[in-house]
Amino acid sequence: MSDANRGFDPSTITRPDERLMKYYVVVALLSVFAFPITLFVLWIKFRTLRYRFDDEGIWRAQGLLWRSEVNITYRRIQDIHLTNGLLQRWFGLATVSIQTAAGSASPEVTIEGVLEAEALRDFLYTKMRGVRDRTAGAAPVTPALPAASSIAAPGSATAASDDEALALLIDIRDALRRLEARGGVPGQPS
Fold first, then answer.
1. Which of left, alpha, beta for 2 (phi over 0: left; psi -120 to 50: alpha)?
2. Whole-angstrom Cα distance, residue 113 to residue 88?
3. Global confidence as pTM
């Protein structure tokens, strides 16, 4: 982590900065005829937008009539994008988009109205890598399935739920290979 980010505390970010509402007013003005409706919708979004960053992950909530809450653990984060258009740069704002492996093209969570966007992005990358480094140290992931004896037994204190599932799949694979070697799998043509 760089020296500039050492004083950064993401837990202090609970709402977007007031500059986001000024940005929303400009965006609403650009909608010309839909200005009153656009401004009202963006005002509600601004007033109801909440964030929380804790040791486990990120929480975001917004909405009045259609309330939306999203919780993402740091281990689910796949990628983090930082965007700031011309107007956002003018107001000193940025949007941090967080993507997961959910398979959606749109980000799972967007953090809008952040002044310290680079510091937040660096914090999220650090948390994401820290979680992955800890899980990677516990059980190495290899592309080929290892022998069942090289994996901790399901139910042992050190085996994680992923290891248990992998061990079960390996046992099934080995059992199918033994059946095939003895003369075929029941119900399968030889």
1. beta
2. 9
3. 0.63
Q: What is the pLDDT of residues 26-47, one digit of tens each?
A: 999 999 899 999 999 999 999 9
pLDDT, residue 141, reads: 44
- Give the pLDDT confidence of 145-186 residue by residue, as tens digits: 444 444 444 444 444 566 777 888 888 888 888 888 887 655
Rounded Cα distance, 83 and 33, in Å? 27
Structure tokens at 56: 């486990």
Give the tokens for residue 95. 């949007």
Q: Which H/E stretch holds residue 175?
A: helix 161-182
| Contact status, residue 114 vs residue 16, Cβ threshold 8 Å | yes
The answer to whether the beta carbons of residues 98 and 107 sit under 8 Å apart is: yes
DSSP annotation of 147 reads P
Residues 83-104: b if buried by 16+ CB within 10 A, e if exposed: ebeeebeebebbbbbbbbeeee
> Which residue do the tokens 């979004």 mark?
45
